[in-house]
Amino acid sequence: MPSRNRLKIYVENSYYHVYNRGVAKQDIFLNTQDYKVFLKYLKEALTKPVVKKLLFNLRGRSFKATIRPIKNFQNEIVLIAFCLMQNHFHLLIKQNNKKSMEGFMRSVITRYASYFNKKYDRVGPVFQGRYKAILITKDEYILHLTRYIHLNPKEYIIDIKEAYSSYADYLGLRKTSWVYPDFILKFFKDPVIPELNKVNSYKHFVENYKKDSSQVLGKLTME
Predict the structure, then answer these.
(1) Which helix or strand (DSSP H or E) is residue 148 part of?
(2) Is position 74 within any domain?
(3) N or C: which end of the chain has fewer CB within 10 A?
């Protein structure tokens, strides 16, 4: 049966829950290096590229060469929250241009699949088809989606800094230059969502809030 979120609606200046899992639900992160490589590819796609210039000699003559950086999406994609699990990943992004997400995801996933296949001497797809993307249209859903994402690795909540997610950035324990938690934290400074009036912090919302975010989100979560 086809995935319910395979058909994508691309809208500029809009928020999306983007996710995918390993083919046949197999693991896509087998060790610490794998997680770090995926995060490295995210960082390189979301930060201003460093143009490297090389000077080399050939048969007594000097030449200058410029290493062309990979396609960059710094001003087109905003990463608001993420979580990497053993066999899948979740991203909450805002795309500023209508077609930015497609190029961004293709770049990150293609690079990681190439790395993974080479490292583990395998061939074939790493991920279960194309990535899935769900358009999120309400502030309440965006808020609950970050909670849903950050609660994915429940066993890591005690050691937040070690979790491969953006939760530590939301709690002020880490500052990742290419993740933007302020898009969500602003709701707690000036609550415009009625249900937050009795919630005093994002940490309290994630770990102690009574509502089940999965039920609030319904079909906006992973299948």
Answers:
(1) helix 139-150
(2) yes
(3) N
Residue 23, C-beta contacts closer than 8 angstroms, at least 6 positions apart: 124, 125, 126, 127, 128
**Residue whose token pair is 């960082």:** 43
CB 214 within 8 A of CB 141: no
Cβ-contact 126, 28 below 8 angstroms: yes
Question: Which residues are 93's β-sheet partners?
Answer: 16, 79
The least confident of 32-41, 64-73, 112-121 is 64-73
Residue 150 in tokens: 């950050």
- Residue 25: how many CA atoms within 13 Å on its side-chain side? 2
Min mean pLDDT across 69-83, 145-159, 163-177 is at 145-159
| Cα distances (angstroms) measured from residue 71 to each of 75, 104, 115, 143, 147 | 12, 8, 17, 30, 30
Range of the domain at 39: 14-218
Tell me if 1 is assigned to some domain.
no
φ/ψ of 91, rounded to 5, equals -130, 140
Is 8 contained in some domain? no
Q: How many domains does the chain have?
A: 1
Q: Is the pLDDT of residue 71 over 50?
A: yes
Q: Would residue 131 count as lying in a domain?
A: yes
Q: Residue 89's domain is classified under what CATH number? A: 3.30.70.1290
